[in-house]
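Listing 4. Sequential folding, example run.
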Amino acid sequence: MRHELITFGIESQLFGIDIMTIREIRAWSPVTRLPRVPEYVAGVVNLRGTVLPVIDLSVRLGWPATETTPRNPIVVTEFEGQSRGLIVHDVNDIVSIDGDTMQQPDAGAHDEISHFLLGIAPLDDQMVMVLDLKKLMSADELDLAA
């Protein structure tokens, strides 16, 4: 089985998300901060009249907050009827990964990232970490921002 992914960078690492969950990639727009939301929720933006929660994916994965600039895109995802924006450092390409080449993350790993991965696969001369959007978006705290 092949996986079609949008790839993007965070902290010099390559990540991918299933292309079917991507609603759009939009240019940066400032977010409105909200009180009492998790640290990884950067705030909300107006997406054509809809309040869109925006997650700093770097923070969600346990890394330092993204120092946003107008060059940071927001990847708008839709999963199980919920739309969320993800702040990433850059968007790279659409790629196709053979499911046989994807390896599961180490089951014994306790780092922040492996919990959110479907797998890791080789792509040219680097590795792409394929994110599990269900795990990434599963948090009661995200509903506070919606």
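-- end of first protein; second protein begins --
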Amino acid sequence: MTATHHFGLLFLRLTFSGMMLAHGIPKFLELIQGDFTFSDPIGIGSTLSKFLVVIAEFVCPLLIIIGYRTRLSAIPPIIGMLVAAFIAQANDSFYSKEKALMYASAFIVIALVGAGKFAIHKK
């Protein structure tokens, strides 16, 4: 693999995980302040749903940014975005689902190709 390939993977990780943090940080702050209210799109309860969303939108993007267990860390954001697109926004137009599907696509690529050379976890 070339250096350009590794920089491309780093750019992909940083941009999509950084943008995902913009959604995850407010939910994380609500969680640590004791606000457990959230929607329950898959029927597991609003509190557990909020915990899972914070893992998918806050914890995992941080791990992906630093490149720690990147492929494994990409799975919760993929699931979260697919739930958002196909369950939470099931009755909405494609335009409404587009952002969630774009995030899911990017995290699928990250899960398939890994972190690249610029990561703290290397094989």
